[in-house]
Amino acid sequence: MSNIDATKHWPFYAAAKAPATGTWAEKRRLAAAMRRVIDRLVATDAPIDELQRAADELERFAETLDGLPVRSWLEGFAESATAGDTNAMFDMSPLMGLSNPLSPPIDFELEADRVIGRVTFGRAYEGPPGHVHGGLVAAAFDEVLGFVQCMTGQPGMTGTLQVRYRSPTPLNQPLRFEAWVERLEARKTIAVGTLTCGDKLCAEGEGVFIVIDRERFRSLVGEQSQPKDSGE
Questions:
Q1: Which pLDDT tens digit goes with each residue over 4-22?
Q2: 20: helix, coil or strand?
Q3: CA atoms within 13 A on the CB side of 176
Q4: pLDDT attached to residue 11
């Protein structure tokens, strides 16, 4: 296993986990409420009048959002792998973002030179009956392995991702990812990890991350920041 000094970057992520204030606090609050709605909606047997009322209110809110400003600059990263370090704001991530209602979300902790990810997948993530969709398990591995490899100081984009499913991953149960950097090879970082539910091994993952050209990445950020045509 590569000797990575994760403590160099970890304080930045810890700071990002501090309670939000102002607009960010309300975005997180709204996302949490939407997360609850999504989880309950997929399995609800509510009467039609309740569903109609909720749909009417949500459509009105969606129309309100359509008329409000949309940011056109980068304000955080949607994934950890390309962030460069954990000083980034990951609120928009679909896997760990507290401001993204699609996120479970995954919460990270540091144990020595390993990263621990804790998450509970609700009913919206179901694949086999009572268990997490395998594609979402793979996506979570991509996020967790990407997070730990960015601590090397040479972050990269996913080159290959291999997931070995050992047993079905339960819904609505606390899950634990454990990830570490196995080795560094020139422009490649190899990270590995496990997913467990209690004492049960659910899956193992390995990711090969290719170090990116930081100038090229900055150009992508610049392209995202450019104003969009009104027809888009």
A1: 665 566 655 665 667 788 8
A2: coil
A3: 12
A4: 59
Which residue from 121, 92, 102, 80 is spatially nearest to 32, judged by alpha carbons?
102
DSSP class of residue 126 equals B
What distance lies between CA 176 and its chain's CA centroid? Answer: 14
- Predicted local distance difference test score (pLDDT) of residue 93: 87
- Which tokens go with 172? 């609505």
Q: Mind spelling out the 3-state secondary structure of 152-193?
A: HCCCEEEEEEEEEECCCCECCCCEEEEEEEEEEECCEEEEEE
Closest CA to 169 of 135, 132, 140, 138: 132
DSSP code of residue 228: P
Strand partners, 45: none
